[in-house]
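It is worth pausing here to work through a concrete case rather than discussing structure prediction in the abstract. The textbook approach is simple: state the sequence, then state the predicted structure, then interpret. We follow exactly that order.
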Amino acid sequence: MAEAFKEQIGDQAVARIAKAAGLGRAFVRAARRGLDELELKARVRHIAAALHEHLPADFGTAVAQLVDGLPSALPSAEGVASGFWLWPLCQYVEEFGLDEPELALDAMHALTQRFSCEFAIRPYIESHSERTFARLHRWVEDPSLHVRRLVSEGTRPLLPWGRRLTALQKDPAPVIPLLDRLRDDPEEYVRRSVANHLNDISKGHPELVVDLAKAWLRDGQQTRERLVRHALRTLVKQGYVPALRALGIAAPRLEADLKLTPRRATIGGAIELKITLRSKAGKRQRLVIDYAVHHRRQNGTLSPKVFKWSTRELGKGEEFTLTKRHSLRPVTTRRYYPGKHAVELLVNGESFGRCEFDLRA
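Step two, the predicted structure:
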């Protein structure tokens, strides 16, 4: 069984931090006290508090002591997980350096080359926006791929495990020039972060991301197609037509037949979908085949959720049939309510038929 992430912030991590920071037994005792009872992020905060207690009171002196004891910078994206034990140091800078932003950003520049400061930089973006963005604009040209990635990853509005950057979620304009400068970074590690960042933005500003994707694809850089596809993945899954068109997926020319059985289903059971698609085009077509289940809400309205099905090519005069079983078993993210539901066939983002079914308890 794989080791839980929180176990990487345990006694061994405390010992390594003590050695790197030049701290003795008093720090080790304080950092280990009650650590086993805590979950991952609480462990990180607990050790950061112990660092604050035992490092010099002057933040500049303290971070200089921390940086001096750091291991060698990672030369590539490989081995990033080996620096997991350094997370409490990043947390220390995040929590206790806000009054000294220049010193804190200097420390992040060093730390992120061993373990990402993508969480630590977020309060600085909020509290010292102008100063932090000035650094980010310099860091896009940094020799370290980890520093360049921090520019994108640290500013993601919806970074997993990180606090939301609501101002950038509302208005992503400040980060677009940064992403534009990183789109052709020589490292896939950096470009992947740019794609994930755009995917975050697409959840609130789909038109902006599609327009940006089309502009980037027009320039013809080969590496950008992979980046753009990853950036548009949520919009594609939702069947957002402008995103599909940006990727060259044209409006389909076909006839479709959708069948659904049974028409009376039970919660916990399943339904089966069967479709037949017949080409009406004079050339081969690339088809992205999805379906939306219009779930009944508690108030009686229907709410669609799109599910991926298949990607196929259909030649002139050809047809094919697909079947799929769709489970109606309740899950933690979805509760089923009895009543009328519907399934809608979507091909390249366009509707090609809808069937209703009655769901019973």
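Step three, interpretation. The longest helix spans residues 40-54. Strands lie at 254-261, 264-266, 270-279, 285-296, 302-314, 319-327, 339-347, 350-360.
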